[in-house]
Structure formats: C-alpha cells, structure tokens
C-alpha cells in the first residue's frame, strides 16, 4: 500500500491536470479494491477497530452493512471512539450508523440521539439529514403523521440553514405523505414549485434523482385527481430519462406507474401489460408497492368482467392489511368491491365481515386525513413556500438575468391593479346609487286604466277586468310564493286559457309571465328585508326558498336583473344603513 501511495505521488508530479484526475480516480478504485480484499479476508476485533481512523471505520462499515451483527459492532466502536474524543458530529454519525442496522423503534431512538447532538451545529447539513432519515423510517413503517412532523422540521431547519438541496428533499418527503392523505391540489402546487427549483439547479449531483422524484410525484397527483392523460405525460417523461441513464430499476417503476394512469383511463388491458412489466423489478420497490400493485391489477380484472380474478387480488390486499396494517387510500374501494361481490353471491357472512372492515377502515382513514391536514395547515403553508421563490432564485443568481422581464411584469401588474381598483370603485358607486333607488322608490300603482279594445289585443274589456281583478287577488294572497307555479295552472284557476292570461299580463303589467312572477317575488323579498330583521339574517339560499325561487342562483340573477345589484350587496348596505 505504501508503494502505491509513493507511485501515485510521483505520477502526479509529471502529469497534466486533466490526466492526473483520471489517474486519481482509478487509483482510488484500486485502493478500494485492496481494502475490500483485506476487510473481507478477516474480521477485526474491537481493539483493532478502535485503532483505525474514522474514515476507515466508515469504509469498513459500508462494505459490511449487509452483516448486521458485524456492522453493529463497527458502529459501536465508532461511537465509543467519538465519545472518547468528545466530537459531537462524529457521535451523531455513530448513532446514525447504529440506526441503519437496527430495527424500527430502536433506529428512531438512535436518530433522536443524532439529532440532539447536532441541534447547535453550524453545519448546513445538520440536524436536517437525521430528521429526513427519521421521516423516511416513519414513512416506511406506515407512521405517516410522525413522518410528516419530522419532514416539516427538516424543511424548517434546511430553510434556516439556507440548504436548498435539503429543502427539496424535505419537500419531497412532505409530499409523499400528503399525496396519500392530504390535499392533492396543494401537493401538485408544491411539486411544480419543486420542479422549478430543481430545474434551476441542474449542476447538482442529485439533480437526476430529485427530478425523477418530482416527475413521479406530479404523475401520482394527477392520478389522484382523476386526470390520467396529464399523469401519463409525466410518467412517460420519467421513462425517457431512465432509458437515457440505463437506470433499469427506476425505469420499471415508471412503467408500473403508467399502469395506474391507464387503469383510471379505462384501458385495462394496456394497464395490465404495464403493471406486469413493471413487476419484474418488484424486489427493488418499498413495502407500499404490493398493495398498490394488487389494487390496480385487481381493478383491471374486475372491470374486464373477470371478477373472480379481481376479487382474488383484492383479498391479497386485505391479507396484507391484516398482517402488516399497511393503510392505503384505496382500501375502502377494495372492501366496497368485496362487499358487492359477496352480496351478489348471497354469501351474507363474508358480506358482513367486509362491511365491518369497511366501516372500521373509513373511520381510521378519516382520522388520519384530518390529523395530517391539520398538521400541514398549522406548520407547513404552501403559500409561504411559494413566497420564498424569489429569494431562492436570487441565491441561484438568476434574478439578474431576468431583472428586465421582472420589472415589466411588476409594472404590468401595477397597471392592472390600478385599473382593477378604478373599476371596483366605479362599480361600487354604481351599486350604491342603485341601492338608494330601491330605498327611495315608491310602490308602483297596481291598477291601470282599461283602454279601448283596439289596444287590448283583441280581448274584451270585461275579460280583461275580470283577469286583472283575479291578478290583484293573486298578488294580495301572495300566491306567487308557490315554488311550482306555472302559467297553465294559473289560467285554469282563473277560469280562462293561458293565451288570454299571458296577453293580459303583457299588456297591463308590461312584462312576460316569468318577469311578472319574479318581480312580485323580488318585491316580497324587499318588503321583508325592511320589516323583518330575522329575514335579513337568513342565507341567500334560504331567502330564495322563502320567496318561491328554486335556488339561490336564480334568485340572485332575478334580483340583479330587476335592480342592477346582487341581494348580498343590498343586505350588506341595508345593515350598514340600519346600524
């Protein structure tokens, strides 16, 4: 080994820099191979391990991480050595080494120790990298709420330390949880935000991995939002990237994801082809893969009328839940399909069994969704993240390149804002004037002088007088408040035909039948607003119902057509006037 080091030093003196770095690379590969041979040839005792440097211990640990007993021994030596040296960063690293070869609950305790030893660290990487590791452990063990809490803490620490790399990793982790249990639209917003951050930082060594995470995240959000065509665009982009890199494992993951989108799209045979093709790489996927795979394969067969085959896959998901309690948003649909299947087959016992499970699962999922949304809304606000965009762009030296464009955008937005403000003020003045017109307007005279028959549409004066008399009675009794009133029904009750009644309303009320009824109802609403304080407290929907309208929208439109303002504005102004 000493000879190799001397040889490398001599070569470096007489070699051009570009070739020097190539030789350096191959030198370290040779050294690594040599060390690997030595390490695999023997197992060190504690005293031998203790005598080695931290770098050597880390290398030996990495080469033996599959042997949990020996890796644990190395990690303990590393930890004891760092405690003796009173090196808090090394102590934290020792605990993290123990965490990676420990089972879940113990691993979390070790990571907590790593976090506590680096809380005061000035390094940009700590304690964020341990918080991220902790979040990932929680996620892989279905502790989604605790995973979210750790990820949010990681994001906050990375933001304080101005570590863009870790901010992106933390946002990915937050989105992993929220994509399952949160608000899909908000997750999609954040994924697009992260995509922009990554695209501005292409020189980063983790650019490829981070961009793939984002492509997958955006695609999954679109699947959840039932937009399979959009999802396929991003999944296919991921496939293109992995093919260029010859990254077979991730390639198959994206192929499998296209199966999700194709299932939602209703192309079940194509979906099955993608799902089975992606399943080749099953061993490299995490523990949430199988329920996902079984669900979409089962759904395809179920919808292809191979229900027995589909049900077999749904029962596999139930079996996984029974043994591991791995939750997924699709579980309620699984149990719903099982219930329907056994109901159709008249197997009441199995039907009741899965009905009970459905009720239980929906309750658990509702609680989980509520808690996760509350935690997200309380400690992690997407608008706040989006506001930090300009600062991050500045840190990446992009703001200077786009300063001219940015200024034009600001000026344009300012101009639009001024126009909008001007329009708003003008509109408010117009509404106020219309409001005052309603308040000051006197009740119109209901009766009109009957003119000669030449102006009465060919209807005799006697019939007109009779119909007007009945219309007066109709208005006095407020029969127009009847929700199902119609011209034909009124004509029958008045003892005439709909043609005569329609003409009389047109000639003597200056309105068509619909306008006549709506104006009476609007008039009733105005009167009630004046004399009945309780009526003013009703919702617009309730007021619409009281006045004979089928819904709030038709009431608001009729009110605006009559007075030029909306009832909500009128009520607000009326309250201000009365107060």
Descriptive key words:
mainly alpha, elongated, about 575 residues, disordered N terminus
Structural commentary:
- By secondary structure, the chain is mostly helical.
- The protein has a domain of 126 residues: Orthogonal Bundle (Arc Repressor Mutant, subunit A), CATH 1.10.10.60.
- The protein has 30 helices and no strands.
- It is elongated.
Compose a concise summary of this entry.
The protein has helices at residues 2-13, 17-41, 46-50, 54-63, 68-84, 88-100, 104-118, 128-140, 144-160, 164-181, 184-199, 207-224, 228-245, 248-265, 268-278, 289-303, 307-324, 331-344, 348-379, 382-387, 389-395, 403-440, 461-476, 487-494, 498-509, 513-531, 533-536, 540-546, 552-563, 567-578. It is mainly alpha-helical and 579 residues long.
Radius of gyration: 37 Å
Shape: elongated
Residue-averaged pLDDT:
82
Briefly, what CATH class of the domain at 453-578?
Mainly Alpha
Class by alpha and beta content? mainly alpha
Q: How many strands in all?
A: 0
Spans of at least 5 consecutive residues whose pLDDT stays below 50 are: 1-42, 382-394, 396-400, 442-455
Q: What helical percentage do the residues reach?
A: over 70%
Task: Characterize the biggest β-sheet.
Answer: none
Number of helices: 30
CATH topology of the domain at 453-578: Arc Repressor Mutant, subunit A
| CATH homologous superfamily assignment of the domain at 453-578 | Homeodomain-like
β-strand percent reads under 5%
Cα end-to-end separation: 93 Å
What is the CATH architecture descriptor of the domain at 453-578? Orthogonal Bundle
Order of helices and strands: HHHHHHHHHHHHHHHHHHHHHHHHHHHHHH
């Amino acid at each position: 080994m000493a000879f190799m080091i001397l040889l490398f030093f001599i070569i470096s003196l007489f070699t051009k820099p570009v070739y020097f770095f190539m030789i350096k690379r191959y030198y370290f590969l040779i050294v690594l191979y040599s060390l690997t041979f030595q390490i695999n040839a023997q197992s060190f005792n504690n005293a031998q391990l203790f005598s080695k440097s931290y770098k050597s211990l880390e290398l030996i640990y990495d080469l033996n991480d599959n042997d949990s007993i020996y890796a644990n021994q190395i990690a303990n030596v590393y930890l004891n050595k760092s405690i003796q040296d009173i090196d808090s960063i090394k102590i934290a690293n020792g605990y993290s080494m123990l965490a990676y070869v420990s089972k879940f609950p113990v691993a979390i305790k070790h990571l907590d120790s790593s976090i506590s030893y680096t809380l005061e660290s000035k390094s940009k990487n700590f304690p964020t990298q341990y918080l991220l590791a902790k979040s990932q452990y929680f996620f892989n063990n279905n502790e989604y709420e605790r995973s979210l809490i750790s990820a949010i803490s990681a994001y906050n620490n990375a933001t304080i330390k101005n570590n863009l790399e870790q901010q992106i990793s933390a946002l990915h982790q937050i989105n992993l949880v929220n994509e399952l249990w949160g608000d899909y639209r908000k997750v999609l917003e954040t994924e697009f935000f992260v995509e922009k951050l990554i695209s501005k930082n292409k020189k980063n060594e983790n650019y490829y991995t981070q961009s793939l995470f984002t492509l997958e995240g955006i695609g999954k959000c679109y699947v959840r939002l039932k937009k399979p065509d959009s999802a396929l665009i991003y999944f296919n982009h991921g496939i293109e990237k992995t093919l260029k890199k010859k990254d077979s494992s991730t390639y198959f993951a994206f192929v499998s994801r296209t199966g999700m989108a194709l299932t939602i799209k209703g192309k079940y045979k194509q979906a099955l082809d993608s799902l089975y093709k992606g399943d080749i790489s099953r061993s490299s996927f995490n523990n949430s893969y199988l329920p996902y795979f079984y669900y979409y394969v089962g759904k395809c067969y179920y919808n292809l009328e191979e229900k027995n085959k589909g049900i077999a896959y749904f029962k596999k998901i139930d079996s996984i839940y029974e043994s591991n309690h791995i939750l997924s948003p699709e579980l309620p649909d699984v149990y719903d399909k099982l219930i329907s299947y056994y109901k159709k087959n008249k197997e009441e016992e199995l039907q009741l069994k899965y009905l009970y499970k459905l009720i239980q699962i929906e309750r658990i999922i509702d609680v989980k969704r509520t808690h996760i949304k509350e935690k997200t809304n309380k400690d992690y606000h997407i608008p706040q993240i989006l506001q930090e965009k300009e600062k991050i762009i500045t840190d990446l030296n992009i703001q200077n390149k786009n300063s001219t464009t940015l200024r034009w955008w600001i000026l344009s937005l300012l101009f639009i804002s001024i126009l909008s403000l001007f329009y708003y003020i003008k509109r408010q003045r117009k509404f106020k004037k219309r409001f005052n017109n309603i308040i000051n307007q006197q009740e119109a005279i209901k009766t009109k002088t009957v003119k000669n028959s030449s102006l009465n549409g060919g209807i005799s004066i006697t019939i007109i007088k009779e119909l007007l008399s009945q219309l007066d009675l109709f208005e006095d009794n407020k029969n127009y408040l009847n929700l199902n009133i119609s011209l034909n029904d009124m004509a029958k009750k008045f003892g005439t035909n709909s043609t005569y009644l329609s003409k009389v309303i047109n000639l003597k009320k200056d309105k068509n039948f619909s306008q006549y009824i709506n104006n009476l109802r609007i008039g009733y609403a105005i009167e009630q607003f004046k004399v009945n304080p309780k009526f003013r407290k009703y919702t617009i929907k309730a007021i619409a119902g009281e006045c004979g309208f089928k819904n709030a929208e038709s009431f608001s439109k009729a009110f605006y057509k009559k007075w030029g303002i909306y009832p909500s504005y009128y009520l607000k102004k009326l309250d201000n006037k009365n107060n």
